[in-house]
Automatic annotation (TrEMBL):
Name this protein carries in UniProt: Poly(A) polymerase I
Start-end of Basic residues biased regions: 432-446
Function, as annotated: Adds poly(A) tail to the 3' end of many RNAs, which usually targets these RNAs for decay. Plays a significant role in the global control of gene expression, through influencing the rate of transcript degradation, and in the general RNA quality control.
Gene3D superfamilies assigned: Beta Polymerase, domain 2 (3.30.460.10), cca-adding enzyme, domain 2 (1.10.3090.10)
Record keywords, A-Z: ATP-binding, mRNA processing, Nucleotide-binding, Nucleotidyltransferase, RNA-binding, Transcription, Transferase
Organism the protein comes from: Duganella fentianensis
Length: 469
């Protein structure tokens, strides 16, 4: 009551009372965005639309990143022009999308997404039996568009022409407080689109923001709704999560929020085994490092890593039941890929990359005759080799085998011949004859496990598997 009175006198509003139909407008001095972080093409699109008499703004993640002083990786544009009106204004523009129509505007390799302000009337939109919105193309005002966005920090509009930021939901304050807050009633928003729960995880981990308590509270209970989302969409979001440059933090958040059950169901098991945890951690660290260095990372390599310890387990089980090493590995790979594709629509190309990487592993053990040369010619050798180094670094296999392959890979003709000769000698002279297949348990036979494991990022090489895609 007293608080209300004070607010009345001061003219301030509580979050619940804030009028979200009109934005708070901030000029350059108040928001501090550096216009040099803006892409020329983003300005080109907004100004073309504005010159044609429409409203146009940079919106969403790009505004959030600009406010954080980070160069946005892509720019989304929001406008009151319809998709058809947008398309006509640009030479290379394509209307795409089923659930929501958007326009892709291309300048060379650069792609900008232009969306028409969306209306809030999702009450009438077709939904599935759990309340998930299936299709919704109603256009609306900017205020309605803002209310449909996921988080307060993702619902701001920047007009490059006058350098103003329009903030409808207290996004600026939340950016400053490093707070991830969903717009509207959290339960309703997650029901409409359960993927928003994954987005909470991704943004919290990536931006190192706290999750506002009401935003986080329903997630554990509502997590099973994820099962109801088409697998392809889950896959896209998982990929964004894993390629965010903060993959490990994201997976930890997924576990904390209880969201991983439907996604990578065996992740718990993997992360609870010391070797599995070490392996996954190394793989994700090397992916994060690549992303931070501005390199690409290969989804096939990443998923092959995440699921490797499941493959190992099944591989061993098949061998124990009498299968030969190689067929046993293929059967294990089939099982794992099959069980994952239900939840996570792994695209065929990614699935086949994963299989290649796994299937190559026993071939690294054959260091006689022409076999190593043949393997070197494998189209995906580099990915298989990087994967081998991860296995060494995690302590799963002897570090020696990785060192041998590094020397072989980098060596000249004479050095390679020497390496093969040395590897063909009895075990005492170089440990060439070792048990095929995976070695379970924490220590490795030569006692070099610690050393291998410490090898960390060095042992993982430069991880250039992505470049061979
Ligand atoms: P990133 O930097 O990772 O691309 P982003 O915020 O730009 O982050 P996008 O997935 O590119 O994320 O989405 C662009 C914008 O669209 C978001 O900022 C948000 O405003 C809106 N948006 C995206 N997905 C949803 C969703 N599931 N529900 C509501 N709004 C969404
Ligand atoms: Mg984006």
């Amino acid at each position: 009551m007293i608080k209300k009175l004070i607010r009345k006198i001061l003219g301030t509003k509580s979050k619940a009372e804030r009028d979200t139909s009109a934005p708070v407008v901030l000029g350059p001095d108040a928001h501090g965005i550096d216009p040099r972080l803006l892409s020329n093409n983003a300005v080109r699109v907004t100004s073309t639309l504005q010159e044609a008499g429409f409203e146009a703004f940079v919106v969403g993640g790009a505004v959030r990143d600009l406010l954080l002083g980070v160069k946005p990786k892509d720019f989304d544009i929001a406008t009151n022009a319809t998709p058809e009106q947008v398309r006509k204004l640009f030479r290379r523009a394509f209307i795409i999308g089923k659930r929501f129509q958007i326009v892709h505007v291309m300048f060379g390799q650069d792609l900008l997404e232009v969306t028409t302000f969306r209306g809030t009337s999702s009450d009438n939109a077709p939904k599935d039996e759990h309340g998930r919105v299936l299709r919704d193309n109603t256009f609306g005002s900017q205020a309605e568009d803002a209310a449909r966005r996921d988080f307060t920090i993702n619902a701001m509009y920047y007009n490059p022409a006058n350098q103003q930021v329009l903030d409808y939901h207290g996004g600026i304050a939340d950016i400053r407080a490093k707070m991830l807050r969903i717009i509207g009633q959290p339960e309703t928003r997650y029901r409409e689109d359960p993927v928003r729960m994954l987005r909470v995880v991704r943004f919290a981990a990536k931006l190192k923001f706290d999750i506002e308590p009401h935003t986080g509270a329903p997630i554990k209970v509502m997590a099973p709704l994820i099962n109801n989302v088409p697998a392809a969409r889950i896959f896209d979001e998982m990929l964004k999560l894993l390629m965010s440059g903060h993959a490990l933090a994201c997976l930890q958040q997924l576990r904390t929020q209880g969201l991983h059950h439907g996604l990578l169901p065996l992740l718990d098991v993997v992360l609870e085994q010391p070797l599995g945890a070490k392996f996954v951690t190394l793989a994700l660290d090397s992916t994060d490092a690549r992303i931070h260095a501005g390199k690409t990372a290969s989804p096939g390599f990443l998923f092959a890593s995440l699921l490797w310890h499941q493959v190992l387990e099944k591989w061993e089980a098949y061998r124990a039941s009498g299968e030969q090493t190689i067929p046993a590995l293929h059967l294990a790979a089939d099982d794992v890929l099959e069980s994952q594709t239900e939840k996570l629509a792994l695209q065929r190309k990614i699935g086949s990359d994963m299989r290649d990487i796994w299937a190559m592993q026993p071939r690294f053990e054959r260091r006689v005759g022409k076999a190593p040369y043949k393997l070197l010619e494998h189209l995906r050798f580099r990915a298989g080799y990087d994967f081998l180094l991860l296995r060494c670094a995690s302590g799963e296999i002897d570090a020696e085998i990785g060192e041998w392959w590094t020397a072989f890979y980098e060596g000249d003709e004479a050095e390679r011949e020497q390496l093969i000769t040395a590897a063909s000698q009895p075990a005492s002279s170089g440990g060439a004859k070792r048990k095929r297949g995976p070695r379970r348990g924490g220590r490795n036979r030569s006692g070099k496990g610690g050393e291998g494991a410490e090898g960390g990022s060095n042992a993982v090489g430069d991880g250039s598997h992505g470049e061979h895609d």
